[in-house]
């Protein structure tokens, strides 16, 4: 397939990034290789979207630090970017909404780029129109010339779709059905088995790309925070500028690990109280 006929693809990773690790960055490289190897896609951009503080996960430090570390980690990448929209919202934002937001932004910027001569106020009107058009389900990931968006996650996040009161079923349907997922295998999770056992995931299995990480890599941010609390080295688990940032700002202590210790995670709080 000629390069111009391939579907342009943007990968969006949502998560705590508390802190960002080398494995978070590897996820993007692994997914890009896998998707481009299908011959159908050209991956043009990666977006890291750190979750906001109102997610209330235990040990979650302030978004400003997590964002800055993600920026430092990606400063040498020519395609992975960091976006603060999600973390700037006053309340925790469902991942389906984050995906929708970035898809709308993509379509808008594509159309604006195509239309450089449009006068300013016309441009703004066009942006609004585009947001409405591209949020209609018939438009999502169906236009060959505009970039498609897929959620990038580890197999543990895919498996978390089965946790009661954590995800709305319509959000799962929207993410896997209308956008698609690139899922990196992770020790302790069996993505293929989980897809097989879930009716909705099985229905959309062609839209879920399971990316096998052969160099099994068990780096987790939890492990990194634990090592830091114990004064152990985390070098080579994180990019050097991130290690320096953590040292300079004395991040990750026993005290910070207790943040939100007695608070219910935002999605559980939201969906349990409405059930
Ligand atoms: N080692 C890994 N292998 C595969 N996916 C990973 C790995 N580490 C993180 N991810 C994925 O990266 C995304 C962001 O994850 P997150 O910020 O929760 O990192 P984490 O290392 O799992 O942190 P924590 O231990 O705090 O949960 C998620 O989709 C998660 O599944
Ligand atoms: N219902 C939902 O949309 C939902 C539920 C749980 C987690 N999430 C997201 O998944 C990511 C998971 O991050 P952690 O693995 O760090 O908890 C976060 O970005 C979070 O916002 C979304
Ligand atoms: Zn995690």
Automatic annotation (TrEMBL):
Its cofactor is Zn(2+); Mg(2+). CDD domains: NMNAT_Eukarya. It is found in: Nucleus. GO terms for molecular function: ATP binding; nicotinamide-nucleotide adenylyltransferase activity; nicotinate-nucleotide adenylyltransferase activity. Keywords: ATP-binding, Magnesium, NAD, Nucleotide-binding, Nucleotidyltransferase, Nucleus, Phosphoprotein, Pyridine nucleotide biosynthesis, Transferase, Zinc. InterPro entries: Cyt_trans-like, Euk_NMN_adenylyltrnsfrase, NadD/NMNAT, NMNAT_euk, Rossmann-like_a/b/a_fold. GO terms for cellular component: nucleus. The keyword Magnesium applies. Residues 12-226 form the Cytidyltransferase-like domain. Its EC number is 2.7.7.1, 2.7.7.18. GO terms for biological process: NAD+ biosynthetic process. The keyword Transmembrane helix does not apply. It catalyses: nicotinate beta-D-ribonucleotide + ATP + H(+) = deamido-NAD(+) + diphosphate; beta-nicotinamide D-ribonucleotide + ATP + H(+) = diphosphate + NAD(+). Pathway: Cofactor biosynthesis; NAD(+) biosynthesis; NAD(+) from nicotinamide D-ribonucleotide: step 1/1; Cofactor biosynthesis; NAD(+) biosynthesis; deamido-NAD(+) from nicotinate D-ribonucleotide: step 1/1. Homohexamer. Interacts with ADPRT/PARP1. Belongs to the eukaryotic NMN adenylyltransferase family. PANTHER family: NICOTINAMIDE MONONUCLEOTIDE ADENYLYLTRANSFERASE, NICOTINAMIDE_NICOTINIC ACID MONONUCLEOTIDE ADENYLYLTRANSFERASE 1. This is Nicotinamide-nucleotide adenylyltransferase.
């Amino acid at each position: 397939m000629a390069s111009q006929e391939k579907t342009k693809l943007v990968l969006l990773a949502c998560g705590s990034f508390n802190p960002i690790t080398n494995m978070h960055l590897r996820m993007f490289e692994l997914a890009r290789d896998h998707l481009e190897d299908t011959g159908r896609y050209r991956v043009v951009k990666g977006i890291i979207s750190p979750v906001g503080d109102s997610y209330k996960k235990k040990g979650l430090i302030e978004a400003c630090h997590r964002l800055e570390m993600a920026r430092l980690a990606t400063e040498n990448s020519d395609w992975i970017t960091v976006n603060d929209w999600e973390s700037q919202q006053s309340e925790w934002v469902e991942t389906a909404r984050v995906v929708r937001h970035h898809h709308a932004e993509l379509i808008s910027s594509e159309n604006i780029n195509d239309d450089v001569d449009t006068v300013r106020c016309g441009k703004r009107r066009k942006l609004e129109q585009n947001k409405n058009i591209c949020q209609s389900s018939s438009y999502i990931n169906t236009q060959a010339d505009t970039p498609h968006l897929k959620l990038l996650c580890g197999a543990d996040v895919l498996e978390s779709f089965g946790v009661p009161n954590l995800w709305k079923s319509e959000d799962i349907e929207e993410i896997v059905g209308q956008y698609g997922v690139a899922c990196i295998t992770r020790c302790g999770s069996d993505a293929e088995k989980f897809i097989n056992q879930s009716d909705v995931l099985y229905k959309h299995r062609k839209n879920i790309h399971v990316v096998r990480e052969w160099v099994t890599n068990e780096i987790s941010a939890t492990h990194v925070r634990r090592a830091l609390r114990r004064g152990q080295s985390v070098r080579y688990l994180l990019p050097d500028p991130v290690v320096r940032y953590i040292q300079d700002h004395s991040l990750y202590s026993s005290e910070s690990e207790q943040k939100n210790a007695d608070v219910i995670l935002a999605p559980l709080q939201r969906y349990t109280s409405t059930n």
